[in-house]
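Progress report, Aim 2. The chain analyzed during this reporting quarter is listed below.
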Amino acid sequence: MLKLRKGVSPTFNGQRDTQQKTSTSEGTGKKHITLTEGKSKEIVKLLAGGRRLSCLDHVWTGDTCLHSTVSSLSKRHGVTIPREWVRLPNRAGVLTRVKEYWFSAEDIAKMLPLIVDEAPVIGD
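Predicted structure tokens for the chain:
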């Protein structure tokens, strides 16, 4: 019989979607940290591409806890991630007050190397 601990999904395999992988550059011997696939990497790609995101974007970003993802990225990678309160229409068309997040130019410069394999083209 499978015993479950409180708050643990039976399908949880212990891997977090914000896992990082470290590789060593052959030329310099320096370690590089990159984000593996998951919601954090998707959010970084969107923000680095110039998008502004709010929790109402969860339908197409797949992130229902954007505020937590932003907080985690900020703490782990030392980025500021600007934010402001805005009023946006929800699915019923009613204006709802939500936080909107985006990357500053400094944040983009710091985060692009983490997603270098699929870095968006900026300025075209």
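The radius of gyration is 17 Å. The longest helix spans residues 66-77. These observations will guide the mutagenesis work planned for the next reporting period.
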